[in-house]
Amino acid sequence: MNHKVITSAVNQLAEVDSLTHLFDQDSQVFRMPSEKTLAEIIDIARDIIFPYHYGDTPVYADTLKYYIGVRVDRLSRLLRQQIEIGLEYECNKCPCAAKTADEVTEEFISKLPELRAILTTDVIAAYNGDPAAKNHGEIISCYPVIKALTNYRIAHQLLLLGVPLIPRMLTEMAHSETGIDIHPGAQIGESFTIDHGTGVVIGETCVIGRNVKLYQGVTLGARSFPLDDNGNPIKGIPRHPILEDDVVVYSNATILGRITIGRGAVIGGNIWVTNDVPAGCHVVQQRATQS
User: Fold this and answer.
1) DSSP assignment of 113-130, as one string?
2) Cα distances (angstroms) measured from residue 199 to each of 186, 189, 220
3) Residue 253 and residue 220: Cα distance in Å, rounded?
4) Per residue in 147-191, pLDDT tens?
5) Please, how many CA atoms are within 13 Å of residue 150, restricted to the half-sphere of its CB?
6) 164 CB contacts (<8 Å, ≥6 apart)?
């Protein structure tokens, strides 16, 4: 082994200038939230929201309060640490990161009952929408949509509380686990479900109403977007679809741009939609006719 070669490589890799385009802040400390720790946070959060369904410890009704309490304590400690790291990453040497992390963590914990309530509507929607489902426990334990929505709804709440970076990490973790890609910035109403799920994409500025159902392969995306004077995409503008209440979108449909799919509309499979669809309208492929 040529130690000079190794030493040379180490010296080059340790050049701080080589990290210019890999780290967003001018800092002497390089630290980001830990995906491993965030995975534990999600595991604990799923166990808190859906006790009896996750975790390897039996849960009894008369000790449920203590069971939940221990997990909420662990969750709050881990989450507070990761939020502080995320804030420091976003705002280098942020003097108020610790205080802000405390406040945000406390506010997030207070929202856990609401998160359980809305996720319960998602479980019921998935159960009611699938005749193959035997019970709610099967939906919670087996269906990828619930795992993806749990990550999304946690991430969305953290985003609303001003937490940087972590929300996107959480939804990308769910993307890897389930094949469902939901941006944490999307707004999704209650009783939402995705049948099968693989290949679904929901963009950042999507607005989805209540009781909406998607099938696998659906894309709610953006069309070409405007550029600034330097040729860079202009961020923060609404560019994804609005789906009103009771919309159904079948498999492999692609809906692009800031358009509105009206209440109760049905979008058939393998359809490309770039214009508004009126309420109650059914959009399907035309059947081929023989000449």
Assistant:
1) HHHHHHHHHHHHHHHHT-
2) 17, 21, 11
3) 9
4) 999 999 999 999 999 999 999 999 999 999 999 999 999 999 999
5) 28
6) 86, 87, 89, 90
